[in-house]
Amino acid sequence: MAEDDEPLMGRPRQKLVETKEKWAREGRALTGRAGKDRLPPGQRLTAEWPVLDLGICPNLSTDDWSLSVGGAVETPLKWSWADFMAQPQVEQTSDIHCVTTWSRYDNTWNGVSARHLLACARPRSSAEFVMFRSYDGYTTNVPLKYFDDDDVLLAHSWEGAPLTRDHGGPVRVVIPKLYFWKSAKWLRAITFMDKDCPGYWEVRGYHDRGDPWREERYR
Ligand SMILES: Nc1nc2c(c(=O)[nH]1)N[C@H]1C(S)=C(S)[C@@H](COP(=O)(O)O)O[C@H]1N2
Ligand SMILES: [Mo]
């Protein structure tokens, strides 16, 4: 499992981990509905942007940062900050849906699109899953078809300003069609995989896929 080969880079906020494990056991906030509305079932709108993570916030300058892409790909990559910023840049506006029930509409992100990264790394036809690894040791897995979407990006800016350290700067993943725990902050590596492998929250009772419109909160 991701847990064994990828220990955390510090001590997580144990209270938060225990609370979230309890929510998974109890099925907190499940409504049993499914929907196509803009606001997924069981979510409420917030204007603020809460900070949520394990509490191990790496302090990375852009000089310290690099992104490795490997696993089941034809062309493994390692991008420095300069390499990353030299890639074609996109802007995307999308909504955030966190499994803790807050949603935030209309977030404008700038960065490199997932589709561009896929064109560069060229996953093998056998690849069906993606693992994100972060500088705090966090991991999260997604099906490749959710990463391969036109609204997915590796973001360095939010609302026109560089992502703050709290929100995962220098670079985080943004996957609007999945719960926000799938959007890894402080991104360090992307590994393409033929077989699925659960990440940090996925081994702690959270859903493997995490589609908010199907209320895939828990396993
Ligand atoms: N590296 C890393 N990424 C992470 C997390 C984390 O602990 N470490 N927490 C996840 C969770 S549970 C959520 S809800 C979102 C929160 O992002 P925000 O703090 O920018 O709102 O980041 C996700 N990405
Ligand atoms: Mo979360």
From TrEMBL:
Domain of life the protein comes from: Bacteria
Domain Oxidoreductase molybdopterin-binding: 57-201
InterPro entries to which the protein is assigned, alphabetical: OxRdtase_Mopterin-bd_dom, OxRdtase_Mopterin-bd_sf
SUPFAM superfamilies, sorted: Oxidoreductase molybdopterin-binding domain
Pfam families from the UniProt entry: Oxidored_molyb
Protein name: Sulfite oxidase-like oxidoreductase
Species of origin: Magnetospirillum aberrantis SpK
